[in-house]
Amino acid sequence: MGISREQRAARRLDRDGIGPVLHDRPIGAWPGAVGGFALWGEVLLTGIMVTIASLGVVTAPAALAAGSRHLTRYARSESSRWALFWRDVRAALPGGIGIGAAAAVLATVLAVDISLARTGVLPAAPVVEAISWAGLLAAGTVLLAAAGQWDAHAGWRAAVMRALSQLRGDVGGAAYLASTVAFVGVCTWALPALLVPALGCAAIAVVAIPARPRRRDGEDLA
Prior knowledge:
By secondary structure, this protein is mainly α.
């Protein structure tokens, strides 16, 4: 006998991970992330929203924090209305502007150092350039980790402290986040318009990297 329309719909919902599931199979922790194409579309939309919210430059930390929280809700199949994204942006702005301003000043100083080093006017120019690039990478990594740790109740100070603890306790995850920062930089350098999807990818990386399965002392950790 053929499969009924109801059965096909049930299979589609089961496959997409939004339930109800078949054969009493429990729903996973990230049911909204099962539909790969839909998730990619949401990542691109998040990149657009994060870019808009980052137009003030110093608002970028708040935008990234809101973007990561939006994708967390989406992946968990919770309410992920864009109104909640903008609510998070507003809540993250007070401390986030200070973080963004400090990051902008640091990035400007390091960029000037790199530019001067390339002219050869600085002593030990290759060393200065390498240290400056490493500083940019480290600052971006901490910023991404802090954006992923932010919540409205604890604020940015706690988010930065938790981010540093996260990076110290998960060297592999720190390397992945650093690679994400490098990816955003290379994409923007190659074609500035690629910054938009790259920011969406950065937001999902902030969510996915700490949640990835890991092995420690022979045991699987989620």
